[in-house]
Amino acid sequence: MVDLSVSLLGSRLRHPVLNASGTFDLLEAAEVLGQEFVARPPVAAYVPKTVTLHARRGNEPPRLVETASGLMNSIGLPNQGVEEFCRHDLPRLLGLPCPLIVNVAGFTPEEYVLAVERLRWALDEALGVYGSACAAS
């Protein structure tokens, strides 16, 4: 058998296929296809929808425009915000049998920092690491 494994940020992945952020909801797919789908996901590492500090509805339609070279989108990063992500999605995503790569967006450097600090605090709590400071709490 051919070895397709790759190294990414110090993690060894079974193969080089990852989903693009926001293009594949593994948790929703598992609800439709069954929980066994999560036991061996089709990606080597999972990238959920982009997370922002505050919840966003995204842009109003039209969100897609066809061009000569393909489609352009302006979805607008709809998401539940970092608090709800940490409370609702993160605990389930940490149970995946593959690495998790969280994509964070913000409109100011401060928003990035606060969102990442909140994620770090949630990860430390979930993994039993205590003592991290979090300005977003």
CATH architecture: Alpha-Beta Barrel
Distance between the termini: 49 Å
CATH topology: TIM Barrel
* Mean pLDDT level: 90
* Oligomer designation: single chain
Q: Count the strands?
A: 4
Low-confidence stretches: 131-137
User: Can you tell me the CATH superfamily?
Assistant: Aldolase class I
The structural domain count equals 1
Radius of gyration: 17 Å
Number of helices: 4
Q: Strand content of the residues, in percent?
A: 5-15%
Strand order in the largest sheet: 1-2
Q: Any idea of the CATH class?
A: Alpha Beta
Largest sheet: 2 strands, antiparallel
Q: Which sequence of SSEs, written as H and E, runs from N to C? A: EEHHEEHH
What are the SSEs and their pairings?
Blueprint: E1 6-8, E2 11-13, H1 26-33, H2 36-39, E3 64-67, E4 70-73, H3 82-93, H4 109-127
Antiparallel strand pairs: 1-2, 3-4
How would you characterize this protein structure?
This protein has 137 residues and is α+β, with helices and mostly antiparallel strands. It has one domain (6-127): Alpha-Beta Barrel (TIM Barrel). It is 31% helix and 10% strand. The protein is built from four helices and four strands. It has helices spanning 26-33, 36-39, 82-93, 109-127; strands at residues 6-8, 11-13, 64-67, 70-73. It has a two-stranded antiparallel ribbon with strand order 1-2. It has a two-stranded antiparallel ribbon with strand order 3-4. Helix 3 (82-93) runs parallel beside helix 4. The longest helix has 19 residues, at 109-127. The termini are far apart. The model is unreliable at 131-137 (pLDDT under 50).
